[in-house]
Amino acid sequence: MQSNLEGRLRNFRLEKKDAPFCIYETVVNGFQSYPEASEKKYVKVTIEREDLFGNKNTGLISSITVSDEGEGFTDENLKAFKTLDETTKPQLGCKGVGRLTCLKVFSRVKIKSRYVSGDKVYRRDITFDPKNEVQVSLEELSEDILTTGSEVSLVGKLPGSLEDKVASSEAIRNGLLSHCLKFLITEQSNFDVLIQDEGVVTSLQDELKSKLKETPFTEEIQIGGHCFSLTHILLKDIKAPSYIAWCGNGRVVLLDPKTLNLLSGISNALKNQGEGLTYICMVESKYLDDATYADRSNFSISENDDSLGLEELSFPQIKRAIEPRIRSFLKELVEKEKLENFERLEYWGQELPSFKPIIDLDKNIEIPKGASRREALKILRRTKYEMADEVDDLIESSKQSIEKKGLAGTKEAVTKIFEDLMSHRAVALNKSALAEYVVRRKAIIECFDQALSSDFAGEVKKEEFIHNLIIPMKCDSSNMYFEESNLWLLDEQLAFHNYISSDIPLNQIKIAEIPDDLRPDVATLKLCSYEEPIGIGTSVKGSISIVEFKKPTRKDVKGSVDQVIGYAEKLTENKLRSYNKRPVRCEGPVFGYIVCDIDSSFEKYLRTNRGFKKVDNGFFYSVMDCGGFALVLEVLSLDYVLERARRRNQALFKVLGLE
Fold first, then answer.
1. For 485-629, where are the E strands, in sequence order?
2. What pLDDT, in 10s, does the model give residues 282-302?
3. Model pLDDT for residues 242-251, shown as the tens digit of each residue
4. Burial of 253 (0-12, 13-18, 19+ CB in 10 A)
5. Smallest Cα–Cα separation from 506: which of 552, 574, 445?
6. Phi/psi-derived region of residue 265, left when phi > 0, alpha when psi is between -120 and 50, beta in every other case
7. Half-sphere CA count of 35, side-chain side, radius 13 A
8. What is the pLDDT of residues 532-588, one digit of tens each?
9. Which residues pair with 503 in a beta bridge?
10. What's the Cα-to-Cα distance from 262 to each of 252, 334, 512, rounded to whole Å?
């Protein structure tokens, strides 16, 4: 049976991110070309980059040459090279497909090799490309040339293969460091890779020594009767993610950062060290050797625990077994990070109190060292949403279970739903929502305080700012969200209404047809509830509230009392209807609020001329008989409104530590 190289290449897949593997494989082949007894094993990688408009450091690779001083392309090695998928060194992990990765990235491979046969030295030149496959020429060299070795040149880079960050000097250096890590660690001073790129020569052995945080630690464990070797490596300053290196037949097959990221605390423990650490767990076993795919892209090991034979291992099973060993090796770092992360959580719980209930419930939330407010918010919001999804799923599952069992309406059903609603996560979410609302209230009160300060720009602007802070001007219920109104600053009851208008003439409000352009600052209609159903043709009881703001420091505000009375008369003498067009019967009192600065003259006027009672400094009230209706009118100073709002919310602020 013969093989067709072009057809084999078409069926051989290599993702763009894996394009540098052709370099890695060529380097490993160069290392393995040395006789086992060799004292020193060196491989040199020379990278040539394109020269565009006189700039050679464009980053675009034109060719790569990998040279070694191994035994060279002997007759036996040449035979293996010319036969796809055949190898003469299975014990070294050679699968016979590394050469295919080269032709997926470069158009051809050119090899110059010297080897000894008997007492003679030969030079063998080889050209390898898809069309001509393997072309060989042979030349006998003079007896004084006794050095052996090979130069493998990868030339004619194919478009789109090595043109992005995977081809940068740093990426290739770190990639080779990872791929050759096993050799660098086990062979130590006996093995090195020299990389010449853009005029700089780098020794991977020196690179490794400079980046080793401590001496690698190797241990063996038994998993399902199979022996596994774990080598724990800590590197510094390589700006690479931590990973598990799954090895097969002496080479790294898979770099697995995902499994490490799933282990709580480890990722942050490494990232948050001052120098930044990369952890590598190199896993080796004959079990992995036997399960390595021919192209070294993966292992024939199940990703789940189902339907396995007695002697078969799954990847989850292997990962569960090595996790405690990883945690043991990194224990000191993880414990240190855990304490520091706890301190960060305490800090962000104070800075972002609306998330404190979430943080108190889940101390495993990881916030990176030096995280900005925006980054911390993003993490906490994601945690909150995930928690909310879990609670929703729990409640929905309970509802479905109750429906299937026919328990709807029973004591058991009520108890189950209650338990779900009162679960720790559900309570934490409710506390978080309340905390968010309380934090907003505190911010509004602080804004109100700032507006009253003497250095706030202009009294007219101050009045507009205060009005808009409490409720946006020139809006009504049709174009205003509930959250935009802060009428609770004046009275909690004002926050609950069916219709509200702000700075809109009476002839434009949507609850009556009033032929008048008088414009109250705020007018609200609240519908009263009935314990019994409303009969057909009957109207709904309602309650009217009116708010009038006066410019801070304004002296002449005595007319505001009659102004509010006038608004009340207009609203009560006309037929009112609810926002959904139902008739409203306002039989109870109208509530009025005048918000202004109160000087001694205005206070005397209120108490002497209008019969107001003083409740507190800055707070006066009167119940007036206005003929067809009663008016309960409160006059509140701006400072009193501020302080009363603070007092009302003080208990909530104290619980959240916002005092």
1. 499-502, 522-527, 540-549, 576-577, 583-585, 590-596, 613-616, 619-625
2. 999 999 999 888 766 788 888
3. 889 898 887 7
4. buried
5. 574
6. left
7. 8
8. 333 334 456 778 888 998 888 888 889 999 999 998 888 888 777 765 667 777 777
9. none
10. 21, 14, 62
